[in-house]
Each structure stands twice: as structure tokens, then as C-alpha cells.
Amino acid sequence: MNRARILVGDALKGLQQLPDGGVRTCVTSPPYWGLRDYGNDGQLGLEATPQEFVENLCKIFDEVWRVLADDGTVWVNLGDSYASSSGMKQNRPQRDNSGGLVNNRRNSRGEQAWTEGTVVAVEKRFDVKPKDLVGIPWRFAFAMQDRGWYLRQDIIWAKPNPMPESVTDRCTKSHEYIFLFSKQPRYFFDHEAIQEPAIHSEDRRAGLGRLNYRGKRQGEDGTGQEAFVSIKDFRNKRSVWNVGVASFKDAHFAVYPPALIEPCIKAGSAQGDTVLDPFSGSGTTGEVALKLGRNYVGCELNPDYAKLSEKRITEALGMFAEVEVK
């Protein structure tokens, strides 16, 4: 039986309760800067500047470094924001009498946004101009490098069903990043667990092969005119992942789809290993981890979300999982 532990409270304090090196991989999606008010004191994402946000986020991953195995990996999904004019009124989510969030305009992730789309108000003294793409994901990635992490890959989450945007001077945003980090140049990575089917010689896509100057196919070895035919049944997974946006019926906030993080967990850990999510949210990482035979530990600032995670994982795994919220 696999086990899930959800530590309620600040992520940094929660991580400090964990032993050194006990986590094989970390898969998470931190709060995006300036895009959502979660209604908790000390929450990440409401910092006045991108620099403050990145610094606070990196401090949490400094602690992740300690709890991560030396051959472990970290996978971080992080979205971006656009800067608006200085002093623009921020359209923060309104709250009802019970403190719950009232439905209002949502951003491209389905989250309640401060302003239209993914726009946040910034002051002119910072290094972004009105209408600039702030570049939060890459600011974070480079800051992690500066702290000693190896930035191994930028994976593109391509969304076939993105939220529409009412913009006429740029394209509708339909992708986000997943960054892969490691502590060491060599690390655990089960590439075979996430391989994709290869193209075979009998596949129509391989049937044309290369063309010679007469426009005809030549199949002789060594001529450079051979068909593009795979010699294996599978190939390495590519770095663009086409995964549709999904929702979780019990959550009023956006969650990443299970299909997006399944390859991260499969490649970054083995059965029986522990998977970490310091921003547990509704427990998507925990549910996928336990379904794949891993253990899970998550940190969640909001106790209501922690209870939601417990309910979700228990309903999904039943007698095959032990869930503890503390």
C-alpha cells in the first residue's frame, strides 16, 4: 500500500519537516505571479515585483534541494504574465461573506485573474514596460541555475484547447513551460518509461522516403535516398507535449491535467519512490503518483484544499492508499 502525506501550512515550513534526500522527484506547479488571490496570508504570487516573486520561489526550491535525492529531478510548470500600465486598478477576485471567492473574469488557465487575460499592473521603476511579456518562467529558470541547479530542459506544454483571449496585436497564448532541473549532471531518468511509438516502414508517413532528382524513391543502401524508416519500435519522447486543458469538478481553481505530469513521474521515479509537490493544491500530483505505485508528500497552505486532496486521493485509490493530512 502506498502512502500520501499532505502537510498543511507554509511550503517552506512543511519542507523543513522532511528528512534529507528522501524524495526522488518533485513535480509541481507553483502559484503564478499576479494571477490569483488564494485568500491566505503569506501566499506566494502576490509580490509587488517579478524579482521578489522569483526570489521567494527560489527560497522554497533551496529547501527542495535538501530533501531531494542526489540523483533526483525537479519538474516545474510555470506560466507567464503581461505587464499593464502603471497604476492600473487591479481587479482582484471579490469575496463573499464567508470569505469564499466570487466568480469573476478568469485568465487563460481558468483561474480568477486580477485583470483581463494574463495582465498584471506593475510600476514603471521595474524592468518591464506596459505590454511587455514579463518572462516569469525564464527569470525563474535562470535564477535556479544561479543557485546551482542544472537546467536540463524546457518542455513546451502545447494546449489544443486554450482559453480564448480578446487580443488583436498578438497571438492567443496556447502554451506553457515545464522546466526539468537536476542537482547533478547525471541523475535518475527512466527514458524508456515515456518512449513514444516510432514510425515503421509500413507506415504511410515513411512510404515516400527521400527523393532523387527524378522525383522517384531510391531504396539502395548508402545512396542517401533511403526511406525514413525506424529500426526500433519506440523513440525518445519529444519536448513538445500536446495535452488538453482539463478541470477537476470539485475545484474552483485551475489544475494541471493528470496526463501532463504522468510522464514526469514515470521518468523521474521508480515504483516505491516518493514524489513531492510543495504546492499540492487539489492533489493532482498525489493522485497520479499513487496510481503509478509511488508514495507522495505534499505541502498545502490552504486547509480546505488539503481536505479536497485527501478526498480526491481516497476516492481514486480506495483501499490501495493511505492518506494522512497533518
SSE topology:
Blueprint: E1 2-8, H1 11-15, E2 23-28, H2 50-67, E3 68-78, E4 82-84, E5 119-121, H3 136-146, E6 150-158, E7 175-182, E8 196-197, H4 204-207, E9 234-235, E10 240-242, H5 258-268, E11 274-277, H6 284-291, E12 295-300, H7 303-317, E13 321-325
Parallel strand pairs: 1-12, 1-13, 2-3, 2-11, 4-5, 6-10, 11-12
Antiparallel strand pairs: 3-7, 6-7, 8-9
What does this molecule look like?
- With 326 residues, the protein is of the alpha/beta class.
- The chain has 2 domains: 248 residues, Vaccinia Virus protein VP39 (Rossmann fold, 3-Layer(aba) Sandwich), CATH 3.40.50.150; 40 residues, no CATH class.
- Helices cover 22% and strands 21% of the residues.
- It is built from 7 helices and 13 strands.
- The strands form 3 sheets. A 9-stranded mixed sheet has the order 10-6-7-3-2-11-12-1-13. A two-stranded parallel sheet has the order 4-5. A two-stranded antiparallel sheet has the order 8-9.
- α2 links the parallel β2 and β3.
- α2 crosses α3 and α5 crosses α6.
- The two termini are 19 Å apart.
- About 17% of the residues have low confidence.
